[in-house]
Amino acid sequence: MQSDIDRILYHETTILSRLDEMAHTIAKDYEDKELTVVSILNGSFIFMADLLRRIPLPLQIDSWSVSSYHGTKSKGHIEFRQNSIADVIGRHVLILDDILDSGLTLRAIKDRLEAESGAASIRSCVLLRKKLQCEAATVADYIGFEIPDEFVVGYGLDYNERYRNLPYIGVLKEEAIRRHAR
Ligand code: 5GP
Ligand code: MG
User: Fold this and answer.
1) What percent of the chain has pLDDT over 90?
2) Which CATH number characterizes residue 143's domain?
3) Which atom of ligand 1 approaches the CA of 104 most closely?
């Protein structure tokens, strides 16, 4: 698995110290507020576990399963594998996702929450944000790292369901992309 990685962008220790900073900011912003974190699975499961354990607030968690990617390309639309959402009426919602690319996923989730949830506020937090040629119209309120426009895996992020358990974030070798294409 490790030999399929062309180069490492962020080691685990770098990620965790960035999470310390993000958690500190989030904890200050939501102090004395009723917070519900909506986490987008599967990609954000490790990010969620590491970040939320650093936030000393009595928050609640709802996990949503959505998909928009096939291989290394976005399908251009997102599918909710979820029919019901947690009761967040009057609560402050923070959406957690692994990576902001085109912004389509975050936009769709925000739209659905705005339309259906009755939340007092809706913000978003991503571990990674790709710097795109044309700036994405959707931005996140909290961003871990800005990365180049490359396909990355590890720390929860997959390529056709592989590599999620790599402890770091890295760029796949072209050869591995071809080998695991489907
Ligand atoms: P967007 O809707 O912003 O284009 O894409 C967001 C979703 O696409 C993320 O939640 C993530 O699942 C997937 N994605 C986008 N870029 C990458 C990437 O570089 N690597 C991986 N593994 N997934 C990505
Ligand atoms: Mg995702």
Assistant:
1) 78
2) 3.40.50.2020
3) 2
Within a domain: residue 35? yes
pLDDT per residue as tens digits for the range 52-72: 999 999 999 999 998 776 677
Return the bridge partners of 96, or none. 39, 125
* Report field, pTM of the whole predicted structure over 0.90: yes
- Give yes or no: 98 in active site: no
Mapped onto helix, strand or coil, the DSSP state of residue 126 is: strand
Q: Domain containing 44: what range?
A: 13-147
Asked if residue 99 belongs to a domain, the reply is yes
* 102 C-beta closer than 6 A to ligand 1: yes
- Is 114 domain-assigned? yes
What is the 8-class DSSP label of residue 148? Answer: -
Residue 157 CA: which ligand 1 atom is closest? Answer: 22
Q: Which of 29, 101, 111, 141 is catalytic?
A: 101
| Number of domains the chain contains | 1
Residue 4, helix vs strand vs coil:
helix
